[in-house]
Amino acid sequence: MEVRRIxxxxxxxxxxxxxxxxxxxxxxxxxxxxxxxxGGLVHNKHIIEAYQKEGIKVIPSxxxxxxxxxxxxxxxATDAIKQDIINRGLTxxxxxxxxxxxxxxxxxxxxxxxxxxxxxxxxTHPETIGILGISxxxxxxxxxxxxxxxxxxxxxxxxxxxxxxxxxxxxxxxTALRIKYPTIELHHDVCDATKQRQLALLxxxxxxxxxxxxGDPMSNNTLKLQEVxxxxxxxxxxxxxxxxxxxxxxxxxxxxxxxxxxASTPPxxxxxxxxxxxxxxxxxxxxxxDFLATQKPxx
Length: 299
Ligand code: SF4
Known about the structure:
The protein is α/β, with parallel strands linked by helices. It has 3 domains: 2-11 and 192-291, 3-Layer(aba) Sandwich (Cobalt-precorrin-4 Transmethylase, domain 1); 13-96, Rossmann fold; 99-186, Cobalt-precorrin-4 Transmethylase, domain 1. The protein has helices at residues 13-27, 45-53, 79-87, 98-112, 126-132, 144-148, 167-180, 192-204, 220-232, 267-279, 288-291, and strands at 2-5, 35-38, 57-59, 69-72, 91-94, 116-120, 139-141, 157-161, 185-186, 210-214, 237-240, 256-261. The protein has a 4-stranded parallel sheet, with helices on both faces. It has a 4-stranded parallel sheet with strand order 3-2-4-5, with helices on both faces. α8 (192-204) packs parallel to α9. The radius of gyration is 21 Å and the shape is flat. The structure holds iron/sulfur cluster. Iron/sulfur cluster binds next to α1, α4 and α8. Iron/sulfur cluster (SF4) binds at residues 12-15, 74, 97, 99-100, 163-164, 191, 193-194, 221, 263.
């Protein structure tokens, strides 16, 4: 059986940076305790559980928090939340990905210049929640269909996008927007890590008998890889969180497997699956510390 790893795949630079910041904080003796994470640092339950084992508490809001340090996740947070952290006398540790921070800065500057802002994202995703928190004037688009319902806009209008959306969906949205608002200023910055992982997968799955997407179903980046693979490939597409999800899979008629991973999937999980596919699938032997190892950015 041939196992082909799609490159690039797995950890992106934003996830690596967020984890390096968090690992440094854990090792530091001067960072005030307790340590809190405002939401999950990245969308992977193995990583979050590993940090919880190290003593970091994951909290949904700042309510009741009076001392310690707060880690802002890779998905970012609004200025109001950051100010709240400071006002409470807490230590702010900002692990926001620079690509997300760039979108925040651009939107703020466009709002100051009087633009109406349209934002393409997933309503429940922390990045989109953070962006919508910048101003109530930002209009959310979740699909191409939403564009038909939008009002006529007088004056300048700009469009931005959640960093982890599907490039295929984005292309449709852009076409519809250009028709509805011919003068719209388009900033369609799906981050490079997301774009490259989707493109590499599209180019590499034609002859696969099985496509494995390794990642957490909470991760938009991972879900979009699954979506892209399902649209492009006739082969079955499996989303797996670890080797344990493959224990009962029947590989009898499979000759070629293509494997990729979302931007927040620990490399150790992918490696264990690859070796299992070659040498025999077995229950996972990975331990908590394996999920917190980072590696150099590949893009
Ligand atoms: S997927 Fe993109 S936006 Fe998200 S953390 Fe990685 S580099 Fe940043």
